[in-house]
Amino acid sequence: MNNTKPESRIQVIDRAALLLDAISRYTKPVKLKVLSADTNLHPSTAHRILHSLIDNRFVDRDGSGEYRLGQRLLQLSNRQHTDIDLRAVALPYMEQLRDKIGETVNLTIREGDVVIYFEKATPNRMMHVQQIVGSRAPLHVTAVGKLMLGLSGEDEIRSYAQRTNLPSYTRNTFSSLPALIEECHTSVERGYALDNEEAEIDVGCIGVLLYDQSGGITAGLSLSAPIERRKDEWIEDLIAAGKAISAQLGYASETAAV
Known about the structure:
By secondary structure, this protein is of the alpha+beta class. The protein has helices spanning about 10-25, 30-40, 45-55, 70-80, 85-100, 145-150, 155-165, 175-190, 235-250; strands at about 60, 65-70, 105-110, 115-120, 135-140, 195, 205-210, 215-225. Helix content is about 45%, strand content about 20%. Strand 7 and strand 8 (about 215-225) form a beta hairpin.
């Protein structure tokens, strides 16, 4: 007879995990009533657990009372990729690039089917693209996200499309699977990707990937600018910055694929 007792579970931790999973499925901050419905938790129970998660920086609550994943989770996600402090390594290169081109530079990490804006360097002027650290965007509407999808292979792109249904954010969003597959493959072949007003009208991005000592993708690096100001000459500078950061992260290849 097997006398092994079932593994005990701690209810509040299970419920906290349900709430974190529910928040992670949304690309924008989400209301309490939605989280309560998604997790089958009473609103008062969900609110109490979320308050504790906020105290521990696992969840953030914005001014309108909506919830998103917090900075502490971003930091833990970063540690999954590398023992080196990604932000500390990347930020000096991001600031140099920002100062050279005068536009916003973003550092992003992947979390499931979205990228999370992990750090940014913004120019000191009124008119620039503003990305909020901690905000999220679906892979298929971002430059670095399309590179991540492309390198994961066509089967994974198809699985991603099935999971997400490729929602459109603008008229330029790749909401057709064949078109997305072609764009992802093209981006990988040329070593950089573009966002041509696919996430937001009037905003264009250029993106490359960052690699760690194991050769794995650790993050994305991108430039964001009003589409009419974006210049092809920035691509070379972005690729160079990506290679320099990857080298600092321990990536040893002389021909870093960025």
